[in-house]
Design brief:
It contains 2 helices and 7 strands, in the order ββαβαββββ. It is α+β, with helices and mostly antiparallel strands. It has one domain: Archease, Possible Chaperone, Chain: A, domain 1. The strands form 2 sheets. The chain has a 4-stranded antiparallel sheet with strand order 1-2-7-6, covered by helices on one side. The chain has a 3-stranded antiparallel sheet with strand order 3-5-4. β1 and β2 form a beta hairpin. α1 runs parallel beside α2. It is globular and about 40 Å long. About 30% of the residues are buried.
């Protein structure tokens, strides 16, 4: 698992992880790394394709939920497997570029959906952190 950008936590049935970063941009970028790591079991994903993303929601938790939902949607609808992201967050708006590759080249695990269960995004002494649970 790469550095301390994310860590998987104990959960009975689903996948739970925590990401951290100096700012919210890094936290969201590290969510992509955690999701990609789970999907491929740590296999490196190419960055041959890219997609632009723009989201606006009422709060950070809704923004995170929609962000993960978009990653799952791109995988399910167009076999686009996201490997990394460049994200800019301003208030409750997210603008970014998602990099990735065709999912058909990889053996991947399934993610049904993001959940609001146990989700939090908060500032701490080192920057920011988010906790996410994925329904698998």
């Amino acid at each position: 698992m790469p550095s301390k950008k994310f860590e998987f936590l104990e959960h009975t049935a689903d996948i739970k992880f925590r990401t951290s970063g100096k700012n919210l941009n890094e936290v969201f970028e590290n969510v992509v790394l955690a999701v990609a790591y789970y999907l491929t079991g740590g296999v490196k994903i190419g960055n041959k394709e890219q997609r632009k993303i723009f989201l606006e929601k009422d709060n950070l938790e809704s923004l995170m939920y929609s962000f993960i939902d978009e990653i799952i949607y791109l995988l399910d609808s167009s076999a686009f497997l996201v490997s990394k992201a460049e994200i800019q967050i301003s208030g409750n708006k997210l603008i970014g570029i998602l990099y990735g590759d065709s999912a058909q080249k990889y053996e991947i695990s399934q993610i049904k959906a993001a959940t609001y269960a146990e989700m939090h995004i908060k500032e701490n002494l080192k920057g920011w952190e988010a906790q996410v649970v994925l329904d698998v």
